[in-house]
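Exercise 7b. Backbone tokens:
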């Protein structure tokens, strides 16, 4: 969640009928399906008990055609109109810092947007509204409710166009509900995701693993790399299987906050992988950061669901704080690291 990694081999090493073979972060080969016909099990929204059972067993599940095409098109369309031409600062998923756009040679935005719901309406009103409408759709809420067992609260969101490549990790290291594993992530494909565009990968069954908690030795502030190495060691030790499901526009991959996941390297840089990620916790739960800090939530109810407006830039104070961050980035980030280190021990 804070910087990309390099896989052992980013280039497909072979192919078979309906799939390409690539190496995962441990250097082992695995199949990446070219299309949904060659893919692992998936479900429809009507299969409530069946997809919830599969999720509990595997730590993830794919629902096909959950999001209507017009909602996917609206988010992507307003991104093109309002966000992509912007030259201003936006909070980013990979660093949690305000940054200007960074583009790939293919013209794709490579630093994903953090928290669509908190974007400044003065600049991005239609994109923000389309994103919020998509993330609070009744069908999406119902699916998350089936997995969580109660009404959900949206606590974080992201928008991807290009693929920054994300290392293997468990979300619970960064944020979760108070009960570890109670947070559910949703990766929403806004377009058909090409096998070479940087697929979302996951290790089924890894949600049952307990990886060392935050401490001075593997704390995110100063020893984040040690945590990432620890995850890879666990994958090798348990000989976990890697999967990278094929997703079409409107499909949603749900995963547990304790499931090890990330994104593969891009082998076809001309391809985008437009998608929205949303994280939900039970409505009765508080949000836990870095396995130690309860974060105060700033909630608005949208389409019946509580939504956390993190660093909401529609508030003057938050706009002022962003200006401070952008004017004194090194000082601000150093202070943030020290604060996180004190909280996590």
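Sequence design result:
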């Amino acid at each position: 969640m804070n910087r990309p990694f390099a896989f052992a081999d980013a280039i497909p090493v072979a192919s078979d009928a309906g799939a390409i073979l690539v190496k995962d972060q441990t250097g082992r080969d695995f199949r990446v399906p070219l299309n949904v016909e060659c893919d692992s099990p998936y479900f429809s929204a009507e299969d409530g008990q069946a997809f919830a059972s599969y999720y509990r067993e595997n730590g993830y599940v794919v629902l096909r055609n959950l999001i209507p095409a017009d909602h996917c098109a609206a988010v992507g369309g307003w991104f093109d109109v309002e966000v992509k031409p912007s030259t201003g600062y936006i909070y980013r998923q990979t660093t949690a810092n305000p940054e200007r756009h960074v583009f790939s040679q293919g013209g794709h935005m490579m630093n994903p947007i953090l928290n669509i719901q908190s974007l400044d309406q003065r600049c991005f009103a239609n994109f923000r509204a389309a994103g919020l409408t998509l993330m609070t759709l009744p069908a999406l809420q119902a699916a998350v409710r089936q997995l969580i067992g109660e009404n959900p609260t949206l606590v974080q969101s992201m928008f991807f166009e290009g693929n920054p490549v994300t290392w293997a990790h468990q979300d619970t290291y960064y944020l979760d509900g108070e009960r570890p594993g109670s947070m559910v992530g949703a990766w929403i494909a806004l377009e058909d995701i090409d096998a070479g565009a940087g697929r979302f990968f996951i290790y089924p069954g890894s949600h049952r693993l307990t990886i060392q908690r935050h401490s001075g030795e593997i704390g995110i502030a100063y020893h984040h790399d040690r945590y990432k190495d620890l995850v890879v060691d666990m994958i090798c030790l348990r000989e976990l299987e890697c999967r990278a499901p094929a997703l079409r526009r409107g499909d949603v991959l749900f995963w547990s906050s304790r499931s090890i996941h990330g994104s593969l390297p891009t082998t076809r840089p001309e391809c985008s992988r437009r998608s929205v990620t949303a994280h939900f916790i039970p409505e009765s739960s508080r949000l836990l950061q870095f396995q130690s800090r309860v974060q105060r939530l700033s909630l608005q109810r949208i389409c019946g669901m509580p939504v956390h407006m993190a660093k909401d830039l529609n508030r003057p104070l938050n706009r002022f704080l962003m200006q401070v961050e952008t004017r004194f980035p090194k000082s601000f980030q150093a202070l943030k690291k020290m604060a996180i280190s004190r909280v996590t021990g």
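Instructor comment: The chain has seven helices and 19 strands. The chain has one domain: 41-344.
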